[in-house]
């Protein structure tokens, strides 16, 4: 009979999923920063790239708390979301709608992260892992703030610019 799987297994698998995702995002953000046409959007992507380094480190700390090696597990969802972002870069290069498209792609990434961290934080609570709760919540707040900042940039200029002519 197969070993009984419990919340510990779900927590560990999901941790590996978001660890894979964060490292993919770390590589994608510099490309998004280079692609953006407004300097504000470039700066926002660069700032979040730096924060994402902290996210990777915090996840490594959570693996340590579990006494396990930090190891990613392929996440087809984030691969697909990033692929869609790359399509926008290719298809909207030099176009007025580029930044609005990049913001929408980046918000899809943030929302994916928010759902993962929201779940992991609650599971860590149930598992009584207080230090993990603190680490996961810190990252969750930064993802939510980034999502809000991106909405701000879309409202302030990118969407109007995209509308143009
Ligand atoms: Fe992140
Ligand atoms: Fe993020």
Written description of the protein model:
The chain is built from five helices and no strands. Helix 4 packs antiparallel against helix 5 (130-163). The termini are far apart. 83% of the residues lie in helices and 0% in strands. The protein is mainly alpha-helical and 165 residues long. The model has no long low-confidence stretch (mean pLDDT 97). It is elongated. It has one domain: Ferritin.
Topology:
Layout: H1 7-35, H2 39-66, H3 76-92, H4 98-126, H5 130-163
Helix pairs in contact: 1-2, 1-3, 1-4, 2-5, 3-4, 4-5
One fe (iii) ion (FE) binds at residues 22, 52, 55, 113, 139, 143.
Order of helices and strands: HHHHH
Give the cofactors and ligands.
fe (iii) ion
Could you name the CATH class?
Mainly Alpha
- The CATH topology comes to Ferritin
Strand content range: under 5%
Q: What is the C-alpha radius of gyration, as a whole number of Å? A: 17 Å
Q: What count of domains describes the coordinates?
A: 1
Oligomeric category:
single chain
- Largest pleated sheet: none
Shape: elongated
Extract low-pLDDT stretches: none
Could you write a compact summary of the structure shown?
The chain is mostly helical and 165 residues long. It is 83% helix and 0% strand.
State the main characteristics:
165 residues, single chain, 5 helices, binds fe (iii) ion
């Amino acid at each position: 009979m197969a070993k009984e799987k419990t919340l510990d297994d779900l927590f560990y698998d999901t941790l590996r999923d978001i660890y894979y995702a964060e490292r993919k995002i770390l590589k994608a953000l510099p490309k998004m920063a280079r692609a953006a046409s407004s300097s504000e959007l470039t700066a926002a992507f660069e700032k979040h790239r730096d924060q994402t380094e902290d996210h990777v480190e915090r996840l490594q700390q959570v693996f340590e708390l579990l006494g396990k090696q930090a190891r990613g597990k392929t996440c087809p969802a984030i691969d697909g979301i990033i692929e869609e972002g790359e399509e926008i870069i290719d298809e909207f290069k030099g176009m007025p709608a580029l930044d609005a498209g990049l913001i929408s792609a980046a918000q899809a990434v943030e929302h994916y992260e928010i759902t993962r961290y929201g779940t992991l934080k609650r599971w860590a609570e149930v598992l009584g892992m207080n230090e993990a709760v603190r680490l996961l919540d810190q990252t969750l707040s930064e993802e939510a703030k980034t999502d809000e900042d991106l909405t701000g940039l879309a409202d302030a200029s990118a969407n109007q610019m995209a509308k143009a002519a």
